[in-house]
């Protein structure tokens, strides 16, 4: 199970600054469009204090957190779906991600250029979203033409599949032409499965990030309200980040320096941690843990996964040869202080392959090869 997030937005909205803060990497940040052409990639730990607590109680030094991959994709512009600003190349990078992190500029600064004359978050969002819709329309129409040709096939099974596909694709085409993203089109469960292979851009979950200035931390910002109102229509989450400050905090070497700087800014937690957790939850991802006396490891899984499926996340052999799972909750470990005390209080369970794994489970899988 993996999670990768694509950071998109217009040029000069702060994508690379936020990516740099997330990953603590030094990436090119310049005041001109398309300073990022090839996407920057970075792996980031999923913040989870439970991992440390489990390892401390069990006296295990090695801790391996769940990881998220972030992809810094070059700024999109109006006409990207037609190739403007290397748009086709940039759009192809978005197809590979699970979640779209849409950075919206919510600050004024005459020293930082903007593709348009003024700051208007709603307009900026709509420019990007329309390009994603137009790109999806091209994909759908291309597949539609291919299936229309298959209607003439002598193979009856092939012909029937093509008929079903044409009906679905025409429905998508009509709605996309109205400017409706795929995720907002009413589709049956089977129809959603059938379009999955198209990897449509507007079918992906979106998290809007308002990149604010330092003066807006814990204060009102006239731009963020418009982003929240827009996101509300899509039922999409919104968070606020001062990319500049978060980048400066990330660059500090010691935890003490970071805490001191955050205190000075009035921050209790990094906004970037909220970004990671929000993206994690957006896909319905949860965490289970394993420990073997030498290491404690966090594993991400999809909510609703069964025990044998969770075992398969570790290794396919675990799923194929699954016998049983010994399970207890990390909350019980925190309450009772040791595995021995958990067993004494009957909090350890033996579960079969159809057990639905819960967030915070600590699991020992038994399997045969």
Helix content: 40-55%
| The CATH fourth-level homologous superfamily of the largest domain | P-loop containing nucleotide triphosphate hydrolases
Poorly predicted segments: 26-36
Number of strands: 12
Q: What is the succession of H and E elements?
A: EHEHEEHEHHHEHEHHHEEHHEHHEE
Average pLDDT taken over every residue: 88
The portion of residues forming beta strands comes to 15-25%
**Count of individual helical segments:** 14
CATH top level of the largest domain is: Alpha Beta
* Shape annotation: flat
Largest sheet: 6 strands, mixed
CATH architecture of the largest domain: 3-Layer(aba) Sandwich
Main sheet: strand order: 2-4-1-5-6-7
Give an overview in words.
The protein has 369 residues and is of the alpha/beta class. It has three domains: 4-48 and 65-115 and 204-282, P-loop containing nucleotide triphosphate hydrolases (Rossmann fold, 3-Layer(aba) Sandwich); 131-201, DNA polymerase, domain 1 (Orthogonal Bundle); 304-367, Roll (Ubiquitin-like (UB roll)). Helix content is 42%, strand content 19%. The protein has 14 helices and twelve strands. The strands form three sheets. Strands 2-4-1-5-6-7 form a six-stranded mixed β-sheet, with helices on both faces. The chain is flat, with a radius of gyration of 24 Å.
